Structure formats: C-alpha cells, structure tokens
Amino acid sequence: MIEKNYQPADIEDRMSIIWEDSRAFNAGRPDRRDAKPFTIVIPPPNVTGSLHMGHALNNTLQDILCRFERMRGRDVLWQPGTDHAGIATQMVVERQLMERQQPGRRELGRDKFLDRVWEWKAESGGVIINQLKRLGASCDWSRERFTMDEGLSRAVVKVFVELYRQGLIYKDKRLVNWDPKLLTAISDLEVQQIEVKGSLWYLRYPLEGKTFNPGDPATFIVVATTRPETMLGDTAVAVHPDDERYRHLIGKHVILPLVGRRIPIVADEYSDPEKGSGAVKVTPAHDFNDFEIGRRHNLPQVSVLNQEGALALVGNEDYLRGLPEGALQFAEEFDGVDRFAARRQIVARMEDFGFVERIEPNTHMVPHGDRSGTVIEPYLTDQWYVDAKTLAQPAIAAVRSGTTAFVPKNWEKTYFEWMENIQPWCISRQLWWGHQIPAWYGPDGKVFVAETEEEAISHALGYYVEQEVITPEQGREMALDRNKRAGFITRDEDVLDTWFSSALWPFSTLGWPDDDADLKRYYPTDVLVTGFDIIFFWVARMMMMGLHFMKEVPFPTVYIHALVRDEKGAKMSKSKGNVIDPLHLIDEFGADALRFTLAAMAAQGRDIKLAASRVEGYRNFATKLWNACRFAEMNACAVPADLDPTKATQTLNRWIVHETASAAREVTEAIEAYRFNDAAGAIYRFVWNVYCDWYLELAKPVLLGEEGAAKAETRAMVAWARDEILKLLHPFMPFITEELWGVTARRDGLLALAPWPRKAATFTPEQLALMATTVPNDPMMPPPMVEFETSEFADPEAEAEIGWVVDLVTAIRSVRAEMNIAPATLTPLVLSGASAKTRERASRWSDVVKRMARLADISFADHPPEGSVQLLVRGEVAALPLKGLIDFSAEKARLDKELAKADAEIKRIDAKLANEKFVANAPEEIVEEEREKREAALARRAKILEAMQRLKSAT
Questions:
Q1: Under 8 Å CB-to-CB from 204, ≥6 apart: which residues?
Q2: Interatomic CA distance for residues 736 and 719, integer angstroms
Q3: Cα gap 656→790, rounded to integer Å
Q4: 3-class SS at 177?
Q5: pLDDT by residue (tens digit) across 747-778?
Q6: Which residues in the chain come in under a pLDDT of 70?
Q7: Contacts of 669 (CB under 8 A, 6+ apart)
C-alpha cells in the first residue's frame, strides 16, 4: 500500500540497496548476453572531490541515457571510476600531515609519503562515489576503476614506452606554466586567469651608438611592459614591420638598461602598433609569446628566475654571457630577490637613471594556480612532451568525416580550432603522487625508457658495454647482482600529467593491454557526455589515444552540456557566495526533484539558471504523481494479466492509449536526439496535464459510479496508463518510480529492468522468450511480461472527441481568468452553428463540461448572442454571453492600464539594451536578465491584446 505522504529520504536509501543487492546495473547480465551493448565511460571525478552541480548535471544526463537503453534491452555498461588527481591529492595529504603536526613530505621521503597517500585514499577516497549513488547513478559499481590501480598503471606505462619508441614522446626545453609554490609544471586547465589592477611601465631602451638623453627621443626606443622584473632576461625588442615609426630602426640594436646587454631590434607581426608604444621587449625565457618570437628570430633564451620565483643571476652563465665589467656587482645585489620585490627595486633603479618614461594604471588578466593561488610563472625547463600535432591529425579527420560528431554541432568548431593549433603536450609533473615516468638515466645522463627497471638495466648495461664504459665481465656481474648495479641507473623522479592516464580511460578500463574480452564487446563506447571546458584536455586526447592504439574512435558521439549557473545567470563561485550544493538540494527536495530539474532545463547550447524554487516545483510534480498513484490504488485500479489496452471500448480509455502512445514516441525521440529538456517536458505535460488533470478527472464519474464493464475497463486503463508513466519517467526520476512500481504494479521484478514501452524498445524475440520463462522472484532476471505495441497506436476519433472537451474547457477557463470572473459565478455557454458531431459530444459530456468549466447551462444557436465572448474551438464557435456578468467598460479600462504598463516596461528595457555601455560593461547575467524580462513583457502584452480583441468582439 502506498504511504499517505511522499518522503524522498525514506525511499532513496532503500531503493539504492535494492538495486545494488539485485546487481541490476551489472553489465553482461545473463538475460542480455545476446543484446547489443551500450557503453558510456564516466568522466572520472577527482578522488579528492565532492559532488558539485556540474557533476550532478553530467551524471544525471548519463544516467538518463543508461536507464533508457537498459529498459530498451541493451547490455548497458556505465563504467565508473575516479581520477588520482596528482596535485590535488598530494596537497590534501600534505595539509593533513601539517595539521596533525607530523613529518612532512620531504622528511618522510618518497616511499613513505606515497604509503600515506594510499592510506588516505583507502579512508577518504570513496566520498564522491557514495554521493553519485545518492544521485541515483546506475553505474556498474562492480567494475569501479581508479587511474592508479594496477591494471590502468600497466596501460599507462605501455603507452608511454610505445610512444617514446615511435618518436612521439621526447624530452625538450620549453616554457611551461610553473607554480612557484608547488614547484611543478601545471596544465592550462589548472591556471586561473584573474583580473588584477596593475601598471603598464613605459621604459626607455638606449639605442646603440647614441648618447642616451631622456629628453631626446632619437636616442632611445620606448617599450611598454607589465613585467619590468623580467627585463633582465630581454634578448630583443620587437616592432611591427609596417610601423613607420620604427622601420628605420629594424636591424639595429639597443643596450639593455642596468644590464648592458646588446640586443637587436627585430621586425615581428606579433607587435601591435595600437598597443602601448608599439614596441615590445622580448624575453623568450619568461613569456609564451616571446618564446615563439625568439624561435622565429633565433634569439638566445635567458632565464633570470629560479623555481621559487626569485632572481637567479649569480652563476647564471646565460645571463652573464657577453655582459660588460660591473655586471657581476649588479647580479650579486639582486640575486635571490623575490620577483615582486625585484619589480619594485628595478623600477626604482630605472627611474634613477631616467629610463622610465611614464607609468599608467593597467587592469589586466594575470595567471594564478587554481590550487596554490600563487601567480604562475612561464618558466623554461626540461620536461617530457608528446608530439600532439602528429597524434591530432587522425583525430581531426575523424570529426571532419563525421565518424565522431559533436552535439551541439557548433562545438566542432572549438575542437578544430584547438586541434589545428595544437602545441607539444607537456606531460611531466614535479610531484610524487602519480604515475612515475618509466625513464632511467645512466651515469652520463643517457635516457633508457622501458616498462620495467629490469628491462631498463638490461638496455643500459648492453649500451655501456658496447660503448666500452664498462667491460663485458662487469656487465654480466651487474646483471646478476642487484647490489653491484645499485645506483648505476636512476629513475626519473617526475610523474605524468593526470590527463595522460585519463586519455586512456575508454580502453584501459576495459582491460587493455592485459585482457581484450571486454574490450571487444564494449569498445568503442556509444557516447561521451561531458562539459565544454575539457574538450581539449580530455575529449581530444581520448580521441588521439583511442585512434592511435585501438585504431578506432573511442565514441561516435560527444554530447556537450552547458554550465549550471545561479538563478540570475551568474557563474557559481565560492568568492561570490552563490554556490548551490546539490547534496543540500537532495536533502531538502529529494534526488528525483533535482535530477528532473536539471534534465528539464538542459536545453542544447543554453546554460542552466538554477534556483531552489525550480527544484521545489519538481518536488511538487513528484508529489502529484504520488497522489495520482494513491488515487488509483484507492479506487482498486489494477491491470488484469490479459489486458490488451488497444482493445479498450470506452472513448475516454481509447483516448488515454492514444495520448500515452504519443507521449512515448515524443519522449523516446527526444532522448535519442539528446534533447533532454524536450523529453522531460513531454513526460511532465503528459503526467500533470493529460493523465492527472484530464484523464483522472474525466474518469472520476465512472470510477465513483456503479459497477459494470465500463468501470472495470476504466480501472484497468487507469492502472495501465500509470504503469506506462512509471516506465517513461523512470530514467528521469528513478527512485519514486521504482518505489511506486514495486508497490502498485501487477508484476514482480524491478522497473529498472522492465521493457520500455514497445516499438520504442529493442528487445530481441529471444530475449522476450527468455523473459517469459524466467522465475519471477529471481532478481537477476526481468519479470515475465505481456507487452503490446501501444507506441504505434492511434485513435483519431477518440482524440477528436476528448480533445474537444479538453480544448473547450481550457478556452473557457482562460476567458474566465482574463475577465476576472469569480469562481462562484456560473456562466452560460452557447455553441454557435454546431455540427451534428459537436451536438452529440456536448450531450454526452454536458455534465462534465459544466462542472469543470463552471457553466450554468449549454445551449445551441445559429449565431452568437449579443454581448458574448467568442471562442474558436476546433474550427467551431463557442460563445460565452457575459452581458450583465461583467462591466465591459471597467474591464476595458483595466486592460488598457495593463497594456500601458507592459508597453512602458518594454520601452524601458529597449532603452537599456540600446545603451552600448550597459551591454558592454554590465555582468552577462544582468544583461540576460533584462532580455528575459523583455520576452516576458512581450508575452504579457500579446495576452492582453488577445483579451482586448475578445472584449471588443463582445461589445
């Protein structure tokens, strides 16, 4: 029996246990052994993570697809797992050690520190997995993977070694994003651009051969910079080749102030004549753009900072090379000074010598580490790289040919822009937690890359014997005796970028390279659901690795969902204090309400503006469904075992079969096209409007009437339609639908494994035969079922009749609301020039229409009476004589006033949006809010005009 009140918390824990105990979500179930697979890999959340709204949206959409396809008979594998999250996890454990006043990472040493990380992972690493289960994620939890588990680690090592041997991984000295606090290179995704109010310094660089005079522009060139501390590493000044001001200086030299280094003036199109002075200092070792200028002009790379972000000048051969006498004294004075202190001191020294022309306030974006919060430094260092350009070519071709498609399609442009301008991928990180790079260095620094240390030592000994560094006898002894070879080769201390292991996720999780049984069945996956921010960092790299190692794309479809913003459209951030915690919403309204909200608002290409009130509204929707099922139960509505809904005789019941079939088609087609909002909207309208507001209301007189064939059929059909609703709604609201199915449905077995409304389902005849012979109480098998192809059913006559009733009552209610007619006031209805069919319908449904539309009576006439509002219902006129019931003049005055208000609102907003400064400077969410207000005002104006037209026709 259904409980009186719907309490999500009472249901959700119980349903989760039932699903897990029954292994409902396991891939490779006996009843699906011959079924077509459907595979999705979860974007692995960080093991340190906690569920945020992006996770909630992403996993809700994936779960809708998985539950939908599972009900359609597919062998579904939703592969779960977590990412080891190198920097984040190492920071968490280091912070924990500090808080507990225990020895730090360096004091512990690498091995003991890593033991502590694994201990932390065992204790606290499963938080987000449990939170995903609370959301209702139907992953195959028996297959949960971790990017550093034994099998995935073997895959990582194998890929690294193979790519190295193919020349696609190499070591190089290039600029990286360097975090001076964490002392590691970091990826672009881990860099946060923050707007900073700084300065733009205009510096005078003396021209070679001229006597510098601050008052004579012919003796110097002015460069503009936001980073004067890096001038010590300048190796050129760049001007645009078409800039007339500087064309005569191209090829000449300047003398770098304070340092005395002679550097050339080069022509390069990177210089923008409209920015600053039009001339820029070039510091190849401390700026990404300058690095490329340096390569184009073969400029030296002079690094003047150390890993901690302090000046490193003494003993720096690149810095001191070619400098005049006295430069060492300056180097000693500034050596070891922090970069920001050095900025102030260098500017002061430049001012003393007249080298500063002017300083302007300058607001600009400065890169910060998202974990450390410190300013990121472009830093020249030796790192490991992947030749991403070579690997990108097949991945570009796969999308161009349509082998892999993006939904929405506009994201393909972003993909191509990134891929066609791809740079070498820096894959090394100066951390301890992660996959240690499988490279060893010999005594002379030669690199040996191998899958194991034994293999590396074998290669190294063979090489050094051949080079006669050691004798063959020494080589044999070292090969046999571990102690004798100890320290002969040393392993690279760096670990791999987390994205390297994540790039292998679609095939490494399926057993590659050790076992290919699952790989053959479940690779490639069917669709990837992810956010736009990791198209390059994850999607593109999975494409590259999948094509290179599997010779096949990892997924034919990439669905890109939008952002979840706050209710005003602002991006959520802790600093703004507008972060909405999905777990709080689940606690308050239930997981089903949150899931349905996210699905209903997930329009392709449009960000979600989330408000708690929306979630509360869909919690009310769940309550409406709950109460409808209780109503059916209280009226003894049940589905007979031999029911064929297409054989219903009552017009109302044939109408609900027609509408159910229509809803099933609409929901199915929308999910197949990844139009989650349309699918949610279709089932919402069907449940709330069609089933609850109309079908149950129209069925009440029969259900409350005398026993007989009509009542028996209606009871059966109420229950049948309810069961179809539970199926269609299950992918969106799994907890409440599973609970109601278990309590009210005529069958044993789980709704999660029940067939989707037929014709939309993809069960094979063999599967249906297996289902028919299965023991009902076996939770591993779906129940025996009698299914009919109702999704192809249509009854135009039933729809015409019941549709007429619905449209008529709806139109009358609308007019009553527009004209402010009190509910207690009963109005007459005149059907003007009614056809014979309409007269028959009016006669059959007279009592129902009068009750639902608050009518005094229904009559017929050739023409609408004077003083009546005319409604066009399915091509015929229905008139409401309102003369004497309302004051037409007062009503006209009220509508005129409402129209004036709407017009004034539209005019105000138009003026605001026409203001270019407002549109350019106001926050994006404020501008969008004004546009939405305008749309609402236009809709309100249209309704007022419609009401005015009706009023005019009545007078």
A1: 212, 214, 220, 221, 222, 257, 354, 355, 356, 357
A2: 16
A3: 11
A4: strand
A5: 668 999 999 997 544 444 454 454 444 433 44
A6: 745-748, 759-792, 887, 954-955
A7: none
